[in-house]
Amino acid sequence: MKIMLLLGSSRKKGNSEQLAQDVLKDVPHTEVFLHDKTINQIIDKRHTASGFTRVDDDYEELLKQFLAHDIIIFATPLYWFGMSGQMKTFFDRWSQYLRDERFDLKAKLAEKKAYLIITGNKPDPKVSALPLIMQFHAIFQYVDMTFVDYLIGTGNKPGEVSTDSEAFQKTRLWNERFRSV
Predict the structure, then answer these.
(1) Residue 180 CA, distance from chain mean position
(2) Are the C-beta atoms of 136 and 116 separated by less than 8 Å?
(3) Burial of 155 (C-beta count, 10 Å sphere; 0-12/13-18/19+)
(4) Average model confidence (pLDDT) for the chain?
(5) Predicted pLDDT at 42
(6) pTM of the model
(7) Residue 149 belongs to a domain with what CATH number?
(8) What Å distances lie between residue 106 and 87, 96, 103, 112, 115, CA to CA?
(9) In what order do the strands lie in the sheet with 113-120?
(10) Percentage of residues in the chain with pLDDT exceeding 70?
(11) What pLDDT, on a 0 to 100 scale, did the predictor assign at position 134?
């Protein structure tokens, strides 16, 4: 099983990344920091005869890399009670590639297993992150992708999540699971 970590934070070494690194300690994986990629917004042309306009950015290569993996771990901070902008743009571009005849995207997404890591601070992220978890669930359900589990960590400033023993207890469980895959 090939594992990919998609980091959606706008800063490196943040709390989401810290949890993800603990989950994937000693586990072979591919790591992509979305902020390092040029992923442009698109103009929605689903209902036009010409379809989407081709976009010259890093997305198509990233998508090919993404599709080569079996397990995807999405990690994002809770930004204004939603996913990061980088992560949202990643999903928005699926609209374009679901219609691209070179890809059988929906069928390929249905073969993937998804895990989700969210970190936030106030109000209590164990509650305030639930709508975001529901959003991810709806996205995965739409493309028949298996949503296996989620992890919510509490922290704002870099490193604050290290005091969330409950979150790290779950990272150890996931780590055991991924090392045995």
Answers:
(1) 22
(2) yes
(3) buried
(4) 92
(5) 83
(6) 0.94
(7) 3.40.50.360
(8) 18, 12, 9, 10, 18
(9) 30-33, 3-7, 71-77, 113-120, 146-154
(10) 99
(11) 97
